[in-house]
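Section: Multi-chain targets

For targets with more than one molecule, the full set of components is provided together so that the structure can be written out for the assembly as a whole rather than chain by chain. Components appear in the order listed by the source. The example entry contains two components.
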Amino acid sequence: MSIQELWLLLPVLIVSAGILVLMLQAAWQRNNMFAQALTLLTLVLALVALIRQYPTDSTAITLLFEYEPIGAFFSLMLLMVGISVALLQGPYMGKNSREVAEEFYMLLLLSCLGALFLVMSRHVAAVILSIELMSLSMLAMLAYNRERKLALEGAMKYLLLSGAATSVLLMGFALLYATSGQLLLVDMLQSPMSLAAKGGFVLVLAGLAFKLSLVPLHFWTPDVYQGAPVNSTLLLTSLSKAAVFALFIKLVLLVPPEFEADMVRMLSWMAIASMLLGNWLALQQRSLKRLMAYSAIAHMGYVLVAGVIAMGIDHSLVLEGASYYLLAYLVASILIFAVLTLVSKLDDQQDLDDLSQLQGLFWQHPWLASVMTLAFLSLAGMPITIGFIGKFYLLTLAIKLSAWWLVAAMLIGSAVGLYYYLRVIFTLFSPIQGAISLAPRAYLSKLWIGIIAAGLLLLGILPGLLGDELRSILAIG
Amino acid sequence: MVALSFLIWLPLLCGALAWFAEKKVQGSGNWVTLVSLTAILLFSLYLGVLGTSSLSWDWFARFNIHFALLYDGLALLLVVMTLALAILAVAVSWREIEQQRGFFHFNLMFSVAGIIGVFLAADLFLFFLFWEVMLLPMTALILIWGHENRRYAAIKFFIFTQASSLLMLVAIIALALQHQSQTGQLSFNIVQLQGLSLSSNLEFWLMLGFFIAFAVKLPMVPLHSWLPDAHTQAPTAGSVLLAGILLKTGAYGLIRIVLPLFPQATMDFAPVAVSLGVISIIYGALMAYSQTDFKRLVAYSSISHMGFVLLALFSWHEVALQGAILTIVAHGISSAALFSMAGIIQHRIHSRELANMGGMWASAPKMATFTLIFVMAGIGMPGMANFNGELLILLGSYQVFPVQTIIAALAIIGSAVYGLHLFQRAFQGPANTEVADLHMREVVYTSLLVVALLYFGLQPHLVLDLSSDSLSELLNIAQELRP
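Its structure, encoded as tokens over all components, is:
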């Protein structure tokens, strides 16, 4: 490994160093504020390092990883998520929490590290290692308040099912290795595919689809989302989805031509089922976290549309569309969960997530409620929000390919989605039911939320700011 | 011309200002909104005097989308009407809104900005953006300041219009991609898209996508069911804006987009659309007759009147098109007038039920007189604006679709029946209730409405002159296809 390669690994190295320092700090002198500051510093430094040496083409770093623009763009999003979670954990825990704080930040950095490695991986070993690093540290965060029964239940479910999914993934890679004799992802899929290899590839995709909670592998989602502390749910719904999707799209782009027709059929059905079922099941939810779980299923269905089309034509627009849509989804998710985090407490038995508890939020905390409204409008794909531009990209792609089934499912899904998003927004604006207490101070978190919300509006009103540049950022075409 | 875009920013800015002002000084929001709307009205007239103007900025280069506005005669007409009716909306809700006044004014101005944007947009992407954005504040108006069943009405209104506009979005994108495959570049510009040659099958489906979105707004039977609820539950200002302008955006879309972009498909589809229009006319009249709620009755009468517009637009005949424009203006004024009357009455007796009214002429003669004038205008009495519109529509359409037109003409009797029925039940007969008569502020704006109705009734050429350019373009297109 040369110095040059080490230098390219700088963001990851910074995060690793942060983890070590944090560990030493926890052993020596516990201090919540310091741990949070250190985590934030680590993530911001990693972000700066990443931006400083943003790649313009693909460079292999050892056998395991590669450094390329699309992965780097996803890494930016991952670090944004990490910073949000780190910022929100402070007000969420409060001053005198019964739980210790340092470990949470350590786990957060570990799962960020896993996610960063995952989007860089080009080798089976790297994929397995990083996906497990990410999932296992996330698992501990899902049950971070040990007093909560639901959290423990959810974490247990996630542990068992995610373990099963990883074994499916491993099995798939094993089959692919058995037929091709290669462990590099690119080489693995280049040799002509026998039936066993095809089966292996489907298993790999199934393992990833589990993490993305695509129908029919979505069953764990609502329970885990609802049980987990809301800040961990945020991490689960954004970090793991974005990182896994980066790998997913990478694999899908590698599908050999003779296998394309089958894959298109399979993924189309998964996408259509996810969009319809996710939106449909969200309709009757009273719990906001469950609602967001089903909405995540639906939105992953939408981005999968990009994956399906990736196998058709015009790779450049596909990657742009997928990136933009995912960014829109992340931004909206961060905002919604951030607001929930600010009005909940980690020490309580339950988070504030029943719809009726949020009644009249607008009249009590107009700014928070406006942010949440904007985020839901963005998820619903209303113009002047970033969500609309994402939807516009995907619709353009689907129409360009004349994939009318996908278009129809997207339209029906969006129309159904409107109803439940609107229901939440209406609840925020209905007369006040009971006082909702807000985490005191937390100015920095609120400022960060404000910045992200401003970004949501800005990229919705002036889509060209990012949209025109995305091509060169992703270095495609 | 940069100044053109101020027509969109200014209402937004002033809305925020009114919100802020209301927070500082109670009751100042009304004045801020009123003064700024009047100023914008004058500004729009000034821009109109300068002649047709346009503006185009790069906006989203990846898809060749521009922030393009066009301000011609037709747009001027509708923008002025929007602002005038918005002033009316402020006037009728001067004392009606009791809570969250600042936010109310903000929403009102926000929706005005969105509607003006729809009328000005010369780029389909921009058009769609405004089309959706104007829904948000309108939904908020219904949801927050509406009457007893407002939640249901607001959801229904939003989902109907939103879901149908998704079809329009698909059609817009498909159209732009078609442009790309023919010329190598995406385009959302309405004028550029007119040059496309589409296969008749594709043209039909694209036309249908737009048509459904506009027909929901218009509204046309069987896509009308959001309208009675939304109009009835909305606060008076909301009803005025909804009936006065929002419905017209549907007609405007048909004139600006559907007819010029898909002439052949429109003509092939015309028998169906015209029949649906006639069904709307009759259905609206029948339903209006059977209502017991003042606002609901007026809402159904709107369906009936907008049916005439649909009939006229799809018969694509010069006289009928002129009639359509006149009806758009006339119905905007007369329905807004009737809704503000309903608001005035509701403010006094806290009910919209006709059964709770009756005999109000005795206690409120001025109110009764004004209502009678508005009802007469709605019926289409000669001398009032609506008469010219409907007469021209029937004259023009008869030459293209005689059977449908004859049936539509019969429905005018229906409008007389429900109109007089409304008036008789509310103001005549034994006195059920005592109401305070109109006071100064109300007399001022209702008499302005009467003046407007009479003026456009006697001087319709003003409206026709303004819209003549747009109409002659349409007729040129028609001439090529139907010599």
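The longest helix of chain A spans residues 149-180.
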